[in-house]
Write a structure and sequence with these properties.
Elements (H helix, E strand, L loop, with lengths): L4 H20 L4 H22 L3 H23 L12 E7 L4 E3 L2 E8 L2 E7 L10 E6 L16 E6 L2 E6 L5 H19 L2 H12 L8 H10 L9 H16 L4 H18 L4 H19 L2 H18 L3 H4 L1 H24 L2 H21 L6 H8 L3 H17 L1 H7 L4 H15 L10 H20 L10
Parallel strand pairs: 4-6
Antiparallel strand pairs: 1-3, 1-5, 2-3, 3-4, 5-7
Helix pairs in contact: 1-3, 1-10, 2-3, 4-5, 4-15, 5-15, 5-17, 6-17, 7-8, 7-9, 7-15, 8-9, 9-10, 9-12, 12-13, 12-18, 14-17, 15-16
Length: 469
């Protein structure tokens, strides 16, 4: 069988992904070397005996596993000096992330000569991207709930440090974009009720940009809807689908495709262009591209290539960035499982929602330590509205920056939808979560079943009926 260049590229990217994953999950290097060498020898032997071209892919893949493992190892050790922990020190650095609200205060990444530190300042402290600080504080080791910061090379946490000097940063594109993001959040606070403003902000620019009320936070956890404010690839994917379909009603297919891509780019920039949002936008564009081309095979090749590039940029995302996992799993569900569900439900929107929910369910169980018995139903009632609410909220936020009065009037277009979503969250949030033991075996069996469904859909060529046009 003829070996195509696309097969080789797929093998290289997949091998690098596997190698990075093995290093990030701390698999012993000697074991990786032994298995890889064995794979290379088996591939070489098979090729010499049978001349099967795909045996070459086995060898190439094993070599790339080693390369990915070594790359991730050196990526993790590229900081200049270790950050001293447990002793008060002077820390000088520049703010390199958007300040996020948490129980500890305003949290942001400070880039220093020791690498990166996660700093938490009082809510009253003015902090913007690019600002410079000289602080005095005691760095602490990352706790179990802060391990996700490892993906950003954060070595420690500094809570409530004393500010020695503070210098405002120079104007820059990122600083301007983050100011727009903050202005949108502040606009929502002025023209909407607290919970509506929190939900709109979370949907549009991520839950870390706003402090949810304890009642709403608990209700979202119990109803299994917390993920909707994560601004993951799922949100952007659904926006892409709806936007592509809406524009397709008025424009030609080619024009619709490029208009959707441009709008996604503008949305990414206006919401701050952080790594998580950029990743989500790329996955959304990938979703649209796969549907525009009408070939699932192209999606597989592209998805692995994009995933490889993302992990090369930030290897620890595969372990500590839930959004990365949700992005790929939700797209897997929408592209491979939804076509089968369309046959069963005769409703494309419902099929897409259920498929994405099925794909991310085990990950959500791992993230939130339990299972919401009403989560699927709550998501079915809410998720179809997410793209519409995000789109209208974005327009309201931009208008509100120009004029709060006009923004208040424009907000009437989104308030009913926000009120409905909050009501659904509150109603289903009254049900207690069911404790669920985390099981790798159950997760493997579950995804094996999903892959089986996808294989069945592919065999029956059901994806040809799944179109955004």
């Amino acid at each position: 069988m003829r070996l195509l260049k696309s097969h080789i590229l797929f093998t290289i990217c997949l091998g690098i992904i596997v190698g990075i994953a093995l290093r990030v999950y701390e698999v012993v290097f000697v074991f990786v070397v032994l298995v890889s060498v064995l794979g290379i020898l088996m591939g070489l032997f098979t090729y010499l005996v049978s001349k099967h071209a795909y045996a070459v892919c086995v060898g190439i893949g094993c070599v790339c596993v080693l390369l990915g493992f070594v790359y991730a190892h050196f990526w993790a050790d590229r900081t200049y000096e270790p950050l001293p922990l447990g002793a008060e020190i002077s820390i000088e650095g520049t703010v390199r992330s958007y300040p996020r609200l948490s129980e500890f205060g305003k949290g942001f990444i400070l880039s220093t000569r020791h690498g990166n530190a996660q700093v938490y300042m009082p809510f009253s402290q003015e902090v913007e991207y690019g600002d410079r600080f000289v602080l005095s504080g005691v760095p602490e080791a990352l706790g179990e709930t802060q391990q996700y910061l490892t993906k950003d090379l954060v070595q420690g946490i500094v809570k409530s440090p004393r500010v020695i000097t503070y210098t405002k940063g120079d104007p820059s594109p990122m600083r301007i974009l983050f100011k727009v993001r903050t202005s949108i959040r502040d606009t929502f606070v002025k023209i909407l009720s607290y919970d509506q403003a929190s939900l709109a902000t979370g949907l549009l620019i991520g839950g870390g940009s706003v402090a949810f009320s304890p009642e709403l936070k608990t209700a979202m956890q119990n109803s299994g809807t917390t993920h909707i404010v994560a601004l993951s690839g799922y949100n952007i994917s659904m926006i892409s689908i709806w936007l592509f379909g809406l524009l397709g009603m008025f424009l030609k297919r080619n024009t619709t495709f490029w208009a959707t891509i441009i709008i996604l780019l503008v949305f990414t920039l206006m919401t701050g262009a952080e790594a998580s949002i950029v990743r989500a936008a790329i996955m959304g564009m990938l979703m649209i591209s796969s549907q525009y081309l009408g070939r699932v095979y192209d999606f597989r090749q592209s998805a692995v290539a994009v995933g490889c590039m993302m992990l090369v940029a930030s290897p620890y995302a595969i372990r500590y960035d839930a959004g990365f996992t949700l992005s790929f799993l939700s797209l897997f569900g929408i592209v491979y499982i939804a076509p089968l569900l369309v046959k069963l439900t005769h409703c494309k929107v419902l099929a897409e929602t259920l498929a994405a929910q099925m794909a991310v369910m085990p990950v959500l169980v791992f993230l939130f330590d339990g299972f919401s018995p009403v989560g699927v139903l709550a998501n079915v009632l809410i998720l179809p509205l997410v793209p519409l609410v995000m789109g209208i909220s974005f327009c309201v936020g931009i208008v509100g920056i120009v004029s709060v009065t006009i923004g208040s009037i424009a907000s009437l277009a989104v308030q009913p939808a926000l009120a409905y979503m909050l009501e659904v969250i509150q109603v289903f949030g009254s049900f207690e979560r069911v404790p669920w033991t985390k099981s790798i075996l159950v997760t493997i069996v579950y995804y094996a079943a999903c892959i089986g469904l996808a294989a069945y859909a592919r065999k029956k060529k059901l994806w040809y009926e799944f179109s955004l046009s």
